[in-house]
Amino acid sequence: MRHAEPPSPSLCSTTSLLLIGRDRAGHWVVRDLQGLRGGLFVGRTEALKYALFENGNRPQAVVMVPGVLELDLRAASPQHAPALAA
To answer: Can you tell me the distance from the alpha carbon of 18 to that of 60, in angstroms, rounded to the nearest whole number?
Structure first.
């Protein structure tokens, strides 16, 4: 029986956690905690495929959110927030 290696601490620090869930309209959403990347997807399979690609194929860094998950990428750029609000 093969034993899996624990994730490398250096990899964990450079790859962020990605959240997958549905928004209020029922669309599948993927986003990171910092709001730097994410998107809307046709289905759960496509959302999961994107999340795994973005985090280096680390399923342990993907979290399914049971409630509503909204995509808001504006939080990533506070310097652009006034322009978006105007």
So the answer is: 10
